[in-house]
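Protocol step 4 of 5: obtain the predicted structure for the target chain.
Materials: sequence only (see below). No template structures provided, no constraints applied. The aim of this step is simply to have a reference model before the mutagenesis design in step 5. Sequence pasted as it appears in the construct record:
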Amino acid sequence: KIENGGGVKKVGIDFYTVMEEYMKHKYFDQYFSDFSAEKYNTIGAVVVKCSPFHIGHRYLIETAKKKVDFLIIFVLEEEGFLFPFEERFKLVKEGIKDLDNVMVVPSGEFVLSMKTFPQMYSKADNGVVSLNAEYDAYIFAEYVAKILHITHRFAGKDPKGKISKIYYEALRKALPSKGIIFEEIPRKEIGGEIVK
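Step 4 output (structure tokens):
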């Protein structure tokens, strides 16, 4: 509401447009200004921590890349892992430099961040895990994927992680309604052991 000469005038605010403009200015203009999504029929996304990058991550990325025309790798920008973000980011870029039609970007504050899903970092089930998982999935589907024309989201299968299971369930619910395929890729095994 805005008071106008003793009266009250209602002003409508389109939250979706405001959020989209904020994200465009804060994130997309910085990392995707040269990206032409319309060149590709299918665009995939992988969100990785990579602390450090290893052959299991390479396998996930290679497998995902085979399923789409272009793959975007979002490296979690949050700190608090064994390796700092800058080092993890460099390791991923170095580890995939031979692959075509792949780009590596920081996840920023809109893709699986402390702001969108803090429980992914604390692993604490404080009663709002499902709600925050759904919020992060919604932000990804409604803004990130829509703006970048992402058609697929890939994740490494995580049969043991309770928080990951809740998150994957949120992705399975949110993404298909926006035309996005969510696929869990079985993890790389060597001698019957999963590479972690």
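Step 4 remarks: The chain has a mean pLDDT of 88. Residues 129-148 form the longest helix (20 residues).
Proceed to step 5.
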